[in-house]
Structures are given as C-alpha cells and as structure tokens.
Queue: 3 jobs
Job 1
Amino acid sequence: MRQGTSLAILMIALIPAEITCSLESTMMYAALAKLYALYGDPAQIGWLITAFTLAAAGSAAIGGRLGDMFGRRRMLCILLVLSCVGSLLSASTDDLRVVIAGRILQGMTMAILPLCFGILRENLPLDRTALGVSILGSIFSAMVGIGALLGGLIIDNFEWQMIFRVSAAMGAISLVAALLVVPRSVPAGVPERLDLAGGLLFVPALAATLYGVTEGGRQGWMGLPGLYVAAGVTALIFWARYELRHSHPLLDLRLFRNRQIRLVAIGIFLAAVGPMTSSLIIFPLLQQPEWTGTGFGLSASMAGAIKLPGALASGLFILASGLIMSRVGIRIILLAGTAVTLMGWLGMIFGGHSLWWLVALIIFALTPGAGLVNAIAPQVIVQHAPQERIAEATGLLIVIRTMGNSIGAQIVAICLATRLVSEPGRGQFPAESAYLVASVVIAFLTIGSGIAFSGLAGRKSGVVGSTQPELASVAPRA
C-alpha cells in the first residue's frame, strides 16, 4: 500500500474506466432487434454478443494477471486503447464481420474491473479499498440499467453505429483520466519461468467450452456444439493439471485452496447459473403477448425502463453495504443479498400475477439482490488473496461468473421450452407453467448459493482483519 493517494482521486479515473466497460457490455443489446431487421441473420447477429463474451472471459483472467506482473496502470491504459480501437472499428462499417472484430477488442475491457480492484488495493488501506470496491460495484450495477436505456435512446434516434462512437468517446476520456490520475504501479515482475503455455492453452480451451454451451441450445448437443464442449472441457482439465504443477503459473489455481476464496467462487457460480440469469425470464415475460395468458405485451423500451429502477436500487444497496461492511462483515451482506433474491423468486412462484407485482419484484428484490451479491463477492478476494495477485484472482471470479451465466442461459432455455402455447400466424411462447419451472430451478440455485456463502468467515475476519495466515496456502511452490 502507498501513502498520499486518496480514494476520491482514484475514483476520478476508475469510475470512467468502469463505465466504459459497462457501456460496451450493455448497449449492444438495445441494437439487436434493429440488426435482426436490417440483416435478417440472427445467427450472425448473435456473434456480436458471443464474440464479446468469449473475449471478455479470456481477458478477465489473463489481463488481470498481466496487470499484476507488468503494472496494473499500464495494463489498464492498454485495454482502454484497445477499447477505443475496437469501438472505432465497429463504428466505421456496415460489414458485420468487421463489427464483430471490433467487438472482440471491446470484450477485452472486461479485465478493467479486476485491474481497478488491484489498483485500489495497491494504493489504499484495506478498509478504504473495501469502500472503493463497493462504489465501483454500485456504479457498475446501476450502469447495467442506464446502459440499456441509453442504448435504446441511441437506436431510436440515430444510426446504430452511434453506440460505438459513444463508447469510443468514453474510452478516450477514461484513458486520459487514467494517465493523469492513477499512480504508476509497482509490477510484481516476470517469474524466472514465464508460464506462456498456461496462457496460450487457457483462452482457446475456455472459448471452446463457452461457445459450445452457448450454441448447444440453438444447434443441438449432438453436433458441433457437443464436440466443442467436450474438447474445451478436456483442454481445461489438462490446463488445470499443468497449472497446478507449474512453479510459477500464469493463473494460480492454488488460490482456491484458500477456503474463503473457494466458497465465494462456488457461491458466485451458483448465483450466475441461477438468479443472475433473471433477465432471460423477466424480459420475455414482460414483452410476451397478452393473448398467451401469461405475458404483459410491453414494448422493449418499456421493459428496459422497468429494469432501470431496479438497477439503480441495486447500486444504492451496494453502496450502503460498503459503508456498513466493517461493522457487519461480508458474509452477512452476501447472505442478505441472497435472501432478498430468494424472496423475489418465491414471489414469482407463489405471488400474484399482475404487472405491478412483477415490477415490484424486479425493483425491490430480483435485480437489487443479485446485483448486491455480484458486486460484493470480490471483497472476499480483495481480503484473502495475496496483494500481488488480486487482479488475477478477481479476474478468475469473473471467468467463473461468465461460465455460470452461459450454463444458466441454457438451463433457462430448457425450462422455458417445457411447455409452449401457440396460435397459427402468431408464434409460440412459453406457457405459465414453463415460467414456473424456471423460477423453481432458480430458487433452488439461489439457496445453494446462500449455503456456500454461509460458510464464509464472520465479522471477526471482516474488512479490517489480517489475512496473513490465509496466504500460506496459496504461496507458489519452490
């Protein structure tokens, strides 16, 4: 930790960087319907999301570790430059292949968040770091709703490439702020045996797995998607064995020998498979035609507007939790977020079926609860991982969440397909019982996530506690 750098000063640079990351991951969704109409190729349009997700998953872990090794400020600036280049590339053309290439560069910005956590821990004491992580988490959560609404406004009033020009401008602002404000990092240095093989194997193995899971629901599991999953999982197992035996691994899986890190990873994975997939149920339910007897027939813009208050409430929940964390501890906050989320899904299962009831659940339970868990979980990593590997460890947590989201999307799709209602010429949609099945599955996954979080250390091991005894279990082998 350094002296002389305040939390407020760091926020001047870290908040714009985080907003850049958030906008690039959310605004694209608002353009999908228009692009379907323009190009008529849902499979190719889907790659605008898939390419970003695959790049984001690889970058979150590798980028964080490279930042730990070569300097987090330097890596942050490199990613912001790539963000600007990718945004400008996508904004410059109507050729979807070029736009997808730009989205790959944009996806690399997902490493920004773990780098920001590492920068906070490098420059601030642990209690101020915890508050900083909460502030970043609250803003990221709020920007999920704001980004979707902003994207919708841009699509309704300008050409669709404008969303990339906005993200390019935000990336440029963030780059200038990072160069002017963030202190130069002290790199951990390159190990004597640089683990190039670990990095080269991890990204394609992860990409093959996520691609197979994503495409399995569309193409079926017996074709290429199943082969991709099998090859990707096999490569990930080989990679894990290799990394565990390496004296200086690029991604140190021995971090998960720490019980606290292992439990929060399990909890986040279950939450990502379950309650963090809520949008895949909420948005179709809000927009599904009323003749089906289940939906409410709202427009996409109105559905996004309903999501916004929940995202803002989530941000307030997260900020408030950061202020009281030193008193109650991370475990209580994570369990509270899980309990709020569970009440929301129980409300979906046993509650009323009016639009206002669903809006209330979205604003006060489903969105804030899951957002709180997602934003506060990295606090465990900040406390218990070695300082020189914080960006790497929080990046791995994002990878775990991304894998969980991909699996959860397929589980929701399977649940919603259990029973359909249709009319000739009007399409087919999930029946009420299908939404019920999906809600029950997510409720059980939420309970599982809470069980994992309940095993975390209590308040005595909270924000201001020493973590030195924990570090011995993750020290590299000689």
Note: The first strand starts at residue 420 and ends at 423.
Job 2
Amino acid sequence: MRRSRVLWVLKAVVSLGLLGWVLHETLAREGVGSLAARLSSLSWSFLAVAAAVQLTAVFAGILRWRTLLSAQGAELPATWLTRSYLIGRFIGTFTPSTAGLDAYRAWDVAQRTGRRALAASTVVAEKLVGLVGLSLATLALLPLGGTRFFGSTAIALAVAVGLGAGGGLALFLRPRLALSLSRALPRGLADRAERWTAALAGRGIAPGALARATVLSLLSHVATAAVFVATAGALGLRVDPLSLLVVGNAIVVATLLPVSVGGIGVREGVAVAMLGVLSVSATDATLVALLGYLVGQVPGIVGGALLLAGSGRTSPKAVPEPSASAPSV
C-alpha cells in the first residue's frame, strides 16, 4: 500500500510538473488575453463532432470487450456491459492510464458471473489486442506524416509494440507454451508466473473473434486520435488533418503510459511539442489537448451519474467457474 501511494505521488508530481511547464510556456509567450480570446471563438459544431467521435471510440471499445467475453462463453447483455464500461471510465479518470477502467470491469464481470479468472483473462486479452490495434494505427499513419515528427525511430517502436503484443497474445492463447517459458524464470518469479498463467489462460478464443476484436481496437484508437483533429477544427486551425491525426495518435500513446495521473500534463506537453513543429502556437496546442481531454470526459461523466444513481442494478446468482484447474486470483 505504501509503495502504491509513493508511485501515485510521483505520477502526480510528473503531471503537475508537465502541466505547470505547459501553462508557463503558454502564458509567458501569449498571455491570458490570448487564451480567453481563443476560447470565445470556439466552433460548437466541431466540438459536437469531437464528442460524437469520442462516443464512437467508446462503443467500439465496448463491442471489443463483448466480443472477447462472448468468445469465452460469457454472454452478457449489451446494456449491462455499456453501464459497466462507462462507470469504469469514470473511475479511470482518477487513476494512471486505464488501470481504473480495467480493474472495475474485471471486478464487475467477476461479481456478475462468479468467474474471476474469466473476467481477468478477458481484460488481459483485450489489452493485448488493444496494443496490436494501436501498433497497426501507428504503422498506418507513418507514411501519412508520422516520420515527419519521429523519423525512422517511429517505425521501430511501432513494430516493437506490435510484435510484443502479438507475442503476448500468442502466449495467452497457448497457455502450455506460456507455462513452459515461465518455468525458466527464477523460482519465486516462476511460481507466480505459473499461477497467473493458469488463472489468465484463454478459453479457446477463435481466430475470427480475435480478428473482429482487433478491427474494433483499430477503430477505437483512430477515433480517439480523431477527437484532437476535431478540437483543432473547433479552434479554426488550418493544419493538415492527417498531421493532426498523427499528433492525436501520439497523444493517445503518451497518455497510456503509466507515468501520470489520468494523462494530465503529458497530453498537453506532447501537443505543445509536436504541434510546435507545425507552427501552432503554445496556446492553441494546449487548447487542442485540453478540449480533447474535456470531450473525453463526457462518457466518464455519464458513468459517474450511473454510479451515483445505482438504478436498475441487478446481479443474478453467480455462475461457478467451469474449470477447476484455475487458481483464484
């Protein structure tokens, strides 16, 4: 517990430090008046588009989760999954990366079905599929302007993420191979790895289901990146949309790293650094990121309202875990 608190404090320091640097750069160069003037001239129609695109990303994520659950024999109502996902989004607002969203969904499915290993294994599979989708999105954007910002390094990083996620997914689907590899670790780590491998072993996810989940992951990541294209439009920035999409994708990647609280500071810092290459002012770059963040909170706000209301929440009798070989986690 103490270690987790220390890590949270460190991440908060990173967030506040980066955010402080961004605000200092913005106010020092252009002043408060410039910021107020830009906000007063926002295009609300573009903000509505940004909200619609964000909801598209969210529902693609829900469908991906449902696809992987169904592939493992857990048929849960779409309305229940939507509610759980939105509440998870609300909780995830206060945690690094997607930790809150993932932990809540795994707990919620376990509570509903009584199948803790299934709930955890689906989230693990989803994260691996999500990394594959993110890697594919990054690779697709490289010839469209990605190398302008990152050079050849971007190709190596995107390929490394894709290969790592694909390798992890292969081990996930072949638990015997994963168990064999885990035994090569030092004894303490090997015992722990074997327990988790057994608990998180996939239950026969068909290739077709994995393919659908990957496509949904790709759609979700591209839509999330496109939110920042729309917020740039709301500010009236005349920047190539494909370049903005590359910047949006980089922001998504950066905020997924568990180095800050909710991506605060990291999001704005990446925007200022990358959009500066496109001759966008620090004020406008900060607002592109900030507006994208605010639009992204709409699903979380809905989830918070659902959590507080607590209406229509029913939990049927849990179904016992079908496999006796999986230890509790």
Note: The radius of gyration is 21 Å.
Job 3
Amino acid sequence: MSQNKEYNSGSLIFEQIKQLLPQLPSVAIVILNWNGRHHLQQFLPSVLATTYSNHRLVVADNGSTDDSISFMTANFPSIELIVFQKNLGFANGYNEALKEIGADYCMLLNSDVAVAPGWLEPMISLLEESKNHAACQPKILSYKHKHLFEYAGACGGWIDGYGYPFSRGRVFDICEEDDGQYNQTAEVFWASGAALLIRTSVFHQLHGFDPFFFAHQEEIDLCWRLKQRNYKIFCCPQSVVYHVGGGTLPRGHSRKTFLNFRNNQIMLWKNLPWREKCWKVPFRILLDWISGLKGLASGDGGYLLSIIKGHLGFARWLLHKRVPGQGSQRRSLVTFSGVYPGNIAWQHFIRKRTTFSGIVKTNQP
C-alpha cells in the first residue's frame, strides 16, 4: 500500500513538472486523399514515424470512390479520419478540413509524399523564430529519382514579374540535380502545396485557399496574399521529403492545363495593382497564345484548346466573381522577396538558361 502511495505521489510530481515545462507547438499533419488508397498504403508508414512529439495525423477523404475509407479504418484505426461526401477539390477540401482541426500549425501534405527522418522539427523551429514567419516548405526531391528536385516546389517557390512561377531547382519542366546548391534556408515567394507548413490562425485569418481555384496555384495565391500582409514564407532545406508528383492529375493532362492557365490569370488579376494588371494580364494572355500555337505546330492541339478554355474560364470569373476595389490597394509584385523582375520565358526559351541560379543573379543561395 505504501508503495502505491509512493508511486502515486511520484506520478503527481512528474505531471506537475510537465506542466511547468514549455510546451511544444501543436502540429496537425493533414493529408487530403482522393482515390489514393495505394498512396496511403505506401507512404503513411513514413509519416507515422514522425519523431516530433506534439503532432497528430489526420486524413481528410475528399469523396473517394475507391476503397480508401475501408482501408484506413481496417489498417490505420488510430489515424483521425474526416470524410467528405464529394470531391471538394484541393483548395476547398483543405479549407473544410482545417475548420475541424485545432492546432498551432497545420502541415498540408500530399498523399504521395514520403518524409525523411526528423523532417518536421527544423520547419517548426524556423517558424517559431518570429510570429511574422507564416509558412514554409521542406526541400522536395523526386521520389523516383532522389538526386533530382521535384517539380512541385523543389527548394522554394519564386515568381517572375509577369506571373510565371518557378522554383529554386526547377525552371518550367526542367528539374535540377540536388548538389546542395540551395541548402541554405531562404525566404521565398511561395511554398509548395505538396508539403506546406502554415500557422493555422493565419490560414483562417486569410480565409484559406480560394475555393474557386479547385486545384493548382491556390497555394501561390495564398502566399501572395500573405506577402501583401507582410508575412514571410521560407524554404527550410534541413527538412527533406520525397514527392511522386502527378498523383491526382499528371502533368500534361488537359484538365490540369486548363486549371493552371485559368487560375494563373485569376491570381494575377486578384493580386496585382491596377497599374500593372491593366497591361500584364493582356500581355500574359498573348504569351499563353504563343505557347499554345507552338504546341499546335508540334501536333499538340489539345494543349491550345486547354489554354483557350482556361482563358474563357478566367473571363467568366471576371464577369461574376471578382471583388471590386482590391487592385488599387496592392503592392507592386517586384517589391516582394522571391520575385525575379524579368521574364523567365525569355530567359529560358530564348536565352536557353535552364537553372534557377542561371537566371536569378542575386546573392540568394
């Protein structure tokens, strides 16, 4: 009996000591799944091995029609499961999922991502340095070719003065080898939606992703809005993940091409000041048409058709969805960090520069 009293007393003291110790920020790792049962089976074990102690793992099923839900309940009953009755898209799927999650940070992670040991801790430490640090991404390498950066974010997202997104380690479709050339932590313009760590309060403050985007470039739009409010976004290369890519829609898919061209135009219109968008948006439409006609000349008429559909989708949004008065309050794009003021299409296709460091002549690593 005395031994039990001694044990209970010791346990009470231990709990009191725990309460006095500083608490690690809480993190919810949220995986949005749509018909990705095979990805969950392959990649969840690496995420379950996450060593950061104050985290929870949530899978939000986005109206899957495969056996994802039954697979999860049978094989991973300890993982929290949120089920939507229909596919809300990447943007609104995460918006709705995060409404149900209380945590200091949310780690939005694609279902086709394997994480390296100790992947989460460096990013949490980086964002904890300042309340102004709102979001970051890890170094993203190709799962199939681990010596290469992966298309979706590589080592941190940039944008040029005309709205073309690119990355440290990826320019258009060319992904560089990872030789440690971008291993320093750096402020960037956007962080990849494939592995995006963000302050939950800031995500809700900005009302999350624009649900109209459905998928593609919604994270760039969100990061641009963060920049407008003087938040900072980083790439933390000390954290590493491996991304398959094209898990839902492969590159070159007509639906993906349509969404990318439509959403890019919407993003420019939403975020550029009037003095810039009045000429940059038409100029980008012209460049898009040139790209489409080049595709047509090479026998890819579907590419041009997807661009036309994207521009028509932008026109419909412009007629029904735009918010009056936003543009006059926006800062010039080139005033933000992570922006190349020139045109990367000119640098890449005309001057034949294929690497980030070959285009961006700055002190950035």
Note: The CA atoms of residues 213 and 262 lie 8 Å apart.
